[in-house]
Design a protein that fits this description.
This protein has 3 helices and 6 strands, in the order βαβββαββα. With 125 residues, the protein is of the alpha+beta class.
């Protein structure tokens, strides 16, 4: 199964070591969405879910080919954290990624900072 990851599942972060260090890395791709980073955790929202379709940007994701059991484990972790599964087209084929549920979006932006693509890429550094 192909999975498109961002945030703590990308190379160099703690969940990569837990789940993906033995997976086959296929390359990078992009997905559209609105990225926020409340308390330092990346949330990728579909713009339509939070009424901000015009604010969607391309966000870099890493594509991995994983065993179904690993994909299921990642899915349980993501769904348990308030994300939902979406199939997205990539240069490597259809991949599963996870968007944050709109309930996680803080409409008042009291704890939410919106990051643009450059800032998000620097988060990984």
């Amino acid at each position: 199964m192909l999975i498109a990851v961002y945030g703590s599942l990308k190379r160099g972060f703690w969940n990569y070591d837990r789940f993906l260090k033995d997976a086959k890395f296929l390359g990078e791709s992009t997905v559209k969405g609105v990225m926020t980073m409340p308390m330092g955790y990346p949330y990728l929202f579909k713009g339509a879910d939070i009424k901000k379709s015009n604010n969607e940007l391309d966000h870099t994701v890493e594509i991995y080919d994983v065993a179904d059991s690993i994909g299921e484990t990642i899915g349980m972790m993501e769904r348990g954290s308030g994300y939902y599964e979406v199939s997205v087209p990539t240069e490597h084929g259809e991949a599963t990624t996870y968007y944050a549920r709109h309930e996680l979006y803080n409409k008042d932006h009291q704890m939410v900072e919106k990051y643009d693509q450059e800032t998000y890429n620097n988060y990984r550094s």
